[in-house]
Design goal:
The protein is of the alpha/beta class and 510 residues long. It has 24 helices and 14 strands. It has a seven-stranded mixed β-sheet, with helices on both faces. Strands 8-10-11-12-9-13-14 form a seven-stranded mixed β-sheet, with helices on both faces. Bound molecules: adenosine-5'-triphosphate.
Length: 510
Amino acid sequence: MQNQLTTYLRAGYPGLAVISSEEARAEAEIAAACTSLKRRLHAWSSTEGLIDTNEGRITPCPDPLEAFQLLDRLFATDSPRHVVLMRDLQLHLDQTDPMLVRRIKDILRVAKSNGHSLILLGCRLKLPAELEHEITHVDFSLPGPDKLGVVLDGIIKSAKLKTLRDEIRESALQSALGLTTTEAENAFALSVVETNGIDPRIVAREKARTLKRNGLVEVVSATTGLDDIGGLGLLKDWLQGRGGAFSASAKAYGLPAPKGLLIVGIPGTGKSLTAKATAGAFGLPLLRLDMGCVFGGIVGQLEANLRSVIQTAEAIAPCVLWIDEIEKGFSGSKSSGNTDGGTSSRVFGSFLSWMQEKEKPVFVVATANDVSKLPPEFLRKGRFDEMFFVDLPDALERAQIWEIVIKRHGRKPADFDTVVLSRACEQFTGAEIEAVFIDALHESYADGREPKAKDILEAITRTVPLAQLMDGQIAAFRHWAKGRAREAASHAASTPTAPRNTRRISSQVN
Ligand code: ATP
């Protein structure tokens, strides 16, 4: 932040905002910027009043209107140049006091003419429309490995631990990326309490819990690989070709980090599975962004929510950011556009621009079921590296899915005729194939035996695939995808070859 802040202060920006829950770290950076520019720093809070940090002089003034009166005097001349940091002014702005809004506008005007600056610092900012164009946001990223290293050293010293081995230290710092300094300190301290040392796995576990609690992004453990996906050969080939692009040697070669991928398709066909397998194949951590939560909260928090998502993803980068049901973002921004003067659409628009222009290696995998909600500008070239359409699996793919599903549930695929099963479940999605197998497992468990093909075939006949209920929508989906999206699978050879164990399985069926 310090560079950007220094530039804004030097350029004479009168109104700045730093949004962060890390008050102490943000204040230290603001103080450092003021020192380097030889500006006089003052800090106001309703509890302490206005403090001249150079002289330590305190003027009590719990009401911000009183503080602005003092600032009128302070800003009256252009030398020395002052920077006034205001803590939690948002709480006063929430009261929508027209006097306060007007006072801020007045003081910004005086500040501008004499080269002073006002910095609003808090964990959120929802400005009234009157101030939206008067205040400039300063990016405040989460701490990187260097700053987290200082925190870690502090814990090691206070717990009197031995110096960590290099690989443990690096792994602990990597595990803490995406946390604030306080959250990282807590995670390190917890590790000391639980293990009497620093265990990167505990730090990673605490990070996953912390991010989940914050409710926007979630760390998903990516134990899935491309081999866990049945079919979708073209999509898997594409991913395999991009796997090495995040390595140091690819960077040295001058290869730009891939931006991301949009996967649209019929529900249950493996889009989410592919997002997870991408992280596994790339060897990167996976973050899942819940669009429903981002848009589900208070409209005023949307901007802060999306900023926090970007900060977390960039701090953890290189990583895969999976945006599940991205179409909800568009419907969310559209519906709230009626009530918030289009703020949500604008905020979501800037998030989409970030997706396209980001410099940090965050690979976005966006998945969508409902293409009717995706506006054309979202689909334009350059937003993603590629867009894939996932159709219903063909016979060959269904056989592959059967193999994977049977194995996933601890049984041997060789004990079943996956060709027969594949033929019996035409129009089934991968999710439905798995559901059928689980159904068959329940039946056989109730009878106290292992599942047979007969159980599976019966479960198939009990199931009406979604595709039968929504054949019109699927036809429309296919029509939409033609020319717009690449097929995720090559359906050239769709007849599965008979496996070696056909005869034995046929007898099971009978
Ligand atoms: P939705 O759009 O409803 O979220 P989706 O397309 O993301 O569905 P998944 O959630 O990936 O579908 O699939 C659900 C489950 O079905 C997977 O966890 C997996 O067990 C199984 N499955 C679906 N497709 C495949 C596939 N191609 N290969 C193996 N398993 C699959």
